[in-house]
Amino acid sequence: MVTVSMVCDLMAKKLGAKAAQHTLDADTEFETVGLSSLQIADIVYAIEDEVGIEFDPGQAANVKTVGDLVELARATKLGSVEA
User: Is 2:24 a contact under the CB 8 Å cutoff?
Assistant: First the structure.
């Protein structure tokens, strides 16, 4: 299960020392903390690998906040269970 904490931990790893400058929570926007599109993609791929899901690329590209990504993961997981 993907949690806000899991996504925030992945973001903190990508941000390195800059993570301390930000409050990371469900409302955190990926672009406002200085993550590049490649770093955001790495986070998405890490979640896919860890949880065993595959996001719809169009939906994943529209994710703006940590909460959005957690919700997309939850919906994707539920969809894969029903399939």
Answer: no
